[in-house]
Protein 1
Amino acid sequence: MFSFFAPPSRRHVMTLHRIWDRPEARFLIVFVGFLGMSFTIVALNPVNDAIVLPYTAWIARVSGAALRVLGEPAAVTGCIVSSPRFAVTIYNGCNGLITSLILVAGVLAFPARWTAKLVGVVGGLVVIQILNLIRILTLFFIGIHFPNYFNNAHVYIWQSLIIIAGVALWVVWANWSAAGGEAPQ
């Protein structure tokens, strides 16, 4: 019988060792570890204030510049992008950071060479931010032209699409890494 208060028997230790020897279990453990660690770090107030908020404000500035290129007289104040017709606040969940952390955790946990991991992280982050910029721009124009659909487009469609895109990017990268002859470390 197993008890939380009794030291694990030799049989239990061997079982844990066998679990770690399974590549899929090792991937899952490392993935969840990276994900938990990165989400915890990002949630810390000093990290949020020093990194996440300035990053989100940068996303807002890029979005405002793109809107101006598209002919919308957008102004940016902090994390708020506004025009005479609509305004949106870009929050932490809207800056692509969560999807980026999921992708990075998956890439780092996958058994591949560090050069392949670098390609996966950098390429994936660039694609996620391009998709997130498209997300912000389309949501802004939905807010202008179809305000009744803004909330559904934001919550149900785009949030899902960004997460699915991050997972799909990881799948494509993992297949590329494995098929490209990248030997596990």
Protein 2
Amino acid sequence: MLTEIRDLIVERKIISLYNLSLYFNVDERAMEKMVDLWIKKGKIKKTETEESSFSNKCKGCTNKTCYSKMVFYEPN
């Protein structure tokens, strides 16, 4: 699975942690740990952004100004 994760990131050029987790049907925390192996090897890089966007808010949230951290991966 680790090789498949790396290959998908390379193929897509950039992918969010959320979408990567959905694609492989794996919990986001577990996916982060798997991708961390590729980051340590220098094959993948991680980008984190703070988003203040109504479309990116958490499920069930009614606060239109809440912040959610967006995590993306791309080939290094």
Protein 3
Amino acid sequence: MLLIAGGSGLTPCYQVVQAATLAKDSLKLTLIYSNKTEDDILAKKQLEEFANSNPNLKIVHTLTRVPEGSSWDGKKGRISAALCKEVMDTFDKNTLVGFCGPSGLNKCVEEMCVELGIAKENMFRF
């Protein structure tokens, strides 16, 4: 399962991540979380704790505005099909994709899923 969140759109994705982690679920789960700056990342510490305690969870942060000289060593730029393919262990038309964020991000993710061949019934917006 792939979760994609932008800004405060993290809220429903966070709940899925938390539930899967607390249930010790075997679901392979990747969260790609986009923010403008590192300071904008919500619940960063809690997400890191979930990732450290759940071997089936991968958290990927990407920033759209990284100041020159920043120590940020994570992903940079907007969420894209290439980024999804890069960070997912396996990815195919049956991958479940849940997403939540600003309308521009939601539209982009819907288009990206079509481009990647994700079945419409496997895409859901929170």
